[in-house]
Amino acid sequence: MAYMEFEETQQGQRERREFWNGEDGLTLIRQWRREGASLERIAFHIGVSERTLAKWRSANPAMEAAIKQTDELVNAMVENALLKRALGYDKVDVTEELVEGQLLVTKRQTVPVPPDVKAALSWLYSRRSDRWRAQQAPLDATAEEVAQAKEVLVTIAKAAGEALRGDPSDGESGTASA
Prior knowledge:
The chain has helices spanning 10-21, 23-34, 39-46, 50-59, 61-68, 71-87, 117-127, 143-165; strands at 89-99, 102-113. By secondary structure, the protein is α+β, with helices and mostly antiparallel strands. It folds into 3 domains: 10-69; 71-136, no CATH class; 137-167. A two-stranded antiparallel sheet has the order 1-2. Strand 1 and strand 2 (102-113) form a beta hairpin. The radius of gyration is 34 Å and the shape is elongated.
């Protein structure tokens, strides 16, 4: 069954062509292509033959562009935009003014856009998750090694506490005995 039903009249065919060649129809086609739908499946959703779809594509560059917008292409576009934002870039600001009835460019200025830390982290989390992740995997340690490390830490903590109190536990006093 087609995604949308149109009457099987000349008027219905015209409405179908107008809808699917319009912005709403092209948005749906782009979405289906990103989801991996084949041309055969898209023709089925639209309610036309693959031959009719091919004719529409050749007559409408916007439909051809929508059909070419696969998930890999969109992913690549997003990755490129994210990388650009993560690294920073220069943009050109253009000032236009009305001069003697004509809109003229009066000023062009290159403005640096600084790198974006969130974009960089997003890139690194997804591309280098072995090194960049919110939570690192625990170290491989045996229970015995963990117990030994705890003992060392407890000993250090006791020694630090005693040193602050001036209360050594090894029998030596801070004063000389007579």
